[in-house]
Amino acid sequence: MTKKRILASLLAAGMISVLAFSGCKSSGGGETADGKKTVRFMVGGSAGELEQYQKAVDAFNKQSESTEVKLIGVPGDNYNEKVLTQLKAKEAPDCFYSEEASYGELNNSDVLLDLTKYLEDDGSALKKSDVPENLLESYTFNDKITGVPVDCNPMVIYYNADLFKDLNLKSPQEYYDEGTWNFAALQEAAESLRDASKVGFVYSNYWCPLYSMMYSSDEDIYSDDMKTSGFGSERAKKGLEYLENNIKSKAFTFAGALTSGESEDTLFVSGQAGMLYAGRWFVADFTDLSFTYDVIPFPYYDDPAQQMCAMPATPMVINKNTKNPDAVWEFVSYYCGKEGQQIRMEGQGNAVPTVNGLSDIVLTGTPEHAQYFLDAIDNALVYPKAEATHPGLTDAVTEEAEKMLVGEQTAAQALENMNAAVEEALKEQ
Q1: What is the Cα–Cα distance from 53 to 43, expressed in whole angstroms?
Q2: Which letter does DSSP use for residue 220 in this model?
Q3: For 306, which of 143, 174, 216, 422 could close a Cys bridge (C-beta 3.0–4.6 Å)?
């Protein structure tokens, strides 16, 4: 999932609460002229992304003797809205990408098929053991596994290696090699770039960067029962104050305050920004830069054992009311398995495979330390289940952070308001 789609899914999540999903009629169920079961598969994306998805569908159709898949591509930013509308109209496809922000409520509405028995089948092309544990837990609701990852995107810090070298600055990799790549080092590197009239670190305000600042691997954002949160913790307080102080000192630049036409990636490509935090979606765009860039893990707070990054990961789900669940699973297990992921990420791709045996996709070409993408998967923070099941909560939290970022309130006020919004939402179980 790209950053643009992350933001679009969060915006669309607000409409879920007004939709009634119960009673969806059976989906699919037709046959081709030669007797194959037909499966309707819906996904959103750019023209280039849809082209890659179609390649995987075509490859599946060519090798399957019993199933024919029709891809329903949705260009633009209204994919999530279209899925929800079709669910309400009882016209939902057999399988589809479920954006993170709506996935929890789809589970609450009981419209998704339990995939557990398929993943535990020794003959399946995709097994439980193929899914990273943090994603498996994230896709489990009421002891039912209702989604499988299409891929994932652990986030790292991209940095302009030539810029650090030209300015004779200590690079993030040098800090990392010393074992001192922590929040203080990130601030020091950003301040050095700022003092050289560059943009030190570009901060974009959505759940991934925000929670990376506020929490560590040993911190729970929400309790397992989703009744309490860590928004009142000392770590959350210190993380938000750290962000506020660096924005005020201009060591960090808030992407939301950039002028029209500017973004974190355009600043980076032009050589103005030294560092940004993102998933692997920028790798393809950064192949022809005029300088050498590299990546580094997101820094730890005050102990290397606390190191963590955020990881967007979109699940593929199956409509509970599909007439041919076995045929749909045949496709889903192929598409989300090794063959499907390899086809979709042909070349360098824009994500990280979740199955074993495809590391070359990530390690081929640039950046030099691409291994960090792979290393980050198992310890990455995935979208909080508590927010997936409470539409609008993520927006409420990030909106308070934005008020702080533009100087409308302090970190203390933002945290107090975040905590109030979270406590109110968690009461609604």
Answers
A1: 8
A2: -
A3: 216
Residues 291 and 228 in one domain: yes
CB 21 within 8 A of CB 106: yes
Q: Are residues 176 and 298 in the same domain?
A: yes
Q: Amino acid identity, residue 270? A: S
Pairing state between β 140-141 and 95-97: unpaired
Distance in Å from the first CA to the final CA of the chain: 28
| CATH number of the structural domain spanning residue 347 | 3.40.190.10
Q: Is there a domain that residue 373 lies in?
A: no
In a domain, 372, yes or no: no
Task: Give residue 25's domain range.
Answer: 3-153+314-357
Tokens of 107: 């589970």
**β-bridge pairing 156-160 and 144-145:** unpaired
Whether the CB-CB separation of 231 and 239 falls below 8 Å is answered with: no
78's tokens: 């209204």
Say whether 292 sits in a helix, a strand or coil.
coil
Instruction: Return d(Cα 141, Cα 137) in angstroms, integer.
Output: 8
Are 102 and 203 in a shared domain? no
Output the tens digit of pLDDT for each of the chain's 429 residues. Answer: 566 556 555 544 444 443 444 444 556 567 887 889 999 999 998 888 899 999 999 999 999 999 999 999 998 888 988 998 888 888 899 999 998 878 998 999 999 999 999 999 999 999 999 999 999 999 999 999 999 999 999 999 999 999 999 999 999 999 999 999 999 999 999 999 999 999 999 999 999 999 999 999 999 999 999 999 999 999 999 999 999 999 999 999 999 999 988 999 999 999 999 999 999 999 988 999 999 999 999 999 999 999 999 999 999 999 999 999 999 999 999 999 999 999 999 887 899 999 999 999 999 999 999 999 999 998 899 999 999 999 899 999 999 999 999 999 999 999 999 999 999 999 986
Query: To which residue do tokens 């305050």 refer?
Result: 257
Q: What is the number of domains present in the chain?
A: 2
Same-domain pairing of 214 and 340: no
pTM of this structure: 0.92
Residues contacting residue 260 through CB under 8 Å, at least 6 positions apart: none
Distance CA 164, CA 174 (A): 11
Q: What is the rounded CA–CA span in Å between residue 177 and residue 185?
A: 12
